[in-house]
């Protein structure tokens, strides 16, 4: 089966486009106390207008664990900076299980660890993934097929390419709390209501795939 549009567009189009357009902002948002709201906003906006908007969480292949859209962690070593994002369940070939936003000496790129087809059966491979990288100029590197569909398999391959350790990645960020969210400029909302006041984001400056002027969180618009 081919990749689902929402899953594919978010990972392969929205995240690279926003990373390359405003890398400082993306790294700051994805490592800050409002990262969950920001990431969920991008996911929701990228699914608008599609025939099938997907949930951001669900059972991973095998049905024993949950897979969800989340910031796994952040590592900075020398001039290399890495933010790893986990994806909702990747079921089909070309759907990413994990993304890594990377800066090496300030130059951004995005890595994808994605499901692939089993050439012998024509079905999605049960235990192999492809590691690939895309850059602002549109160039792409394919690092081949690798055993394992979990985070550790992705980290192992990424460490080899980047030459840095990703040990401690999962515990590298402070937990997201309501207090931290509010302190960073957000405001708790009762009943899911929208914040009051006019949005200051200009059309044309919104995240890729976003066609409406709406704020991703309750804080003053930073886009």
Secondary-structure blueprint:
Blueprint lengths: L4 H17 L1 H9 L3 H13 L9 E3 L6 E3 L1 E8 L2 E7 L9 E9 L2 E11 L6 E11 L5 E8 L3 H12 L15 H6 L40
Antiparallel strand pairs: 1-2, 3-4, 4-5, 5-6, 6-7, 7-8
Helix pairs in contact: 1-2, 1-3
Would you mind describing this structure in some detail?
The protein is of the alpha+beta class and 223 residues long. The chain has one domain (5-175). It is built from 5 helices and 8 strands; from the N terminus they run αααββββββββαα. α1 packs across α2 and α1 (5-21) packs across α3 (35-47). The longest helix is centred in the first third of the chain and has 17 residues, at 5-21.
Strands of the widest sheet, in order across it, are 3-4-5-6-7-8
Low-confidence stretches: 189-206, 208-223
Helix content: 25-40%
**Tally of DSSP helical segments:** 5
Number of domains: 1
Strand content: 25-35%
> Major beta sheet, specifics?
6 strands, antiparallel
SSE ordering: HHHEEEEEEEEHH
Structural class estimated from helices and strands: alpha+beta
Shape: globular
Q: Rg, please? A: 17 Å
Counting DSSP E segments of at least 2 residues, the number of strands comes to 8
How far from one another are the termini?
Answer: 36 Å
Give a quick rundown of the structure.
The chain is built from five helices and eight strands, in the order αααββββββββαα. By secondary structure, it is α+β, with helices and mostly antiparallel strands. A hairpin with a 6-residue loop joins β1 and β2.
């Amino acid at each position: 089966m081919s990749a689902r549009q929402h899953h594919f567009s978010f990972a392969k189009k929205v995240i690279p486009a926003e990373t390359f357009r405003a890398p400082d902002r993306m790294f700051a948002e994805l490592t800050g106390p409002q990262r969950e709201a920001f990431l969920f906003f991008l996911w929701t906006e990228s699914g608008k207008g599609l025939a099938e908007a997907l949930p951001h969480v669900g059972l991973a292949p095998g049905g024993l664990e949950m897979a969800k859209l989340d910031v796994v962690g952040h590592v900075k070593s020398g001039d290399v900076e890495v933010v790893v994002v986990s994806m909702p369940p990747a079921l089909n070939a070309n759907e990413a299980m994990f993304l890594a936003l990377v800066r090496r000496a300030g130059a951004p790129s995005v890595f994808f660890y994605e499901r692939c087809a089993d050439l012998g059966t024509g079905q999605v491979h049960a235990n192999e993934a492809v590691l690939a990288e895309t850059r602002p100029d549109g160039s792409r590197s394919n690092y081949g097929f690798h055993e394992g569909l979990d985070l550790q398999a992705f980290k192992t391959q990424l460490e080899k390419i980047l030459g840095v350790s990703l040990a401690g990645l999962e515990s590298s960020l402070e937990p997201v709390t309501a207090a931290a969210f509010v302190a960073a400029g957000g405001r708790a909302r009762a009943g899911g209501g929208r914040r009051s006041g006019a949005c200051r984001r200009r059309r044309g400056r919104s995240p890729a795939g976003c066609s409406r002027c709406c704020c991703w969180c309750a804080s003053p618009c930073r886009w």
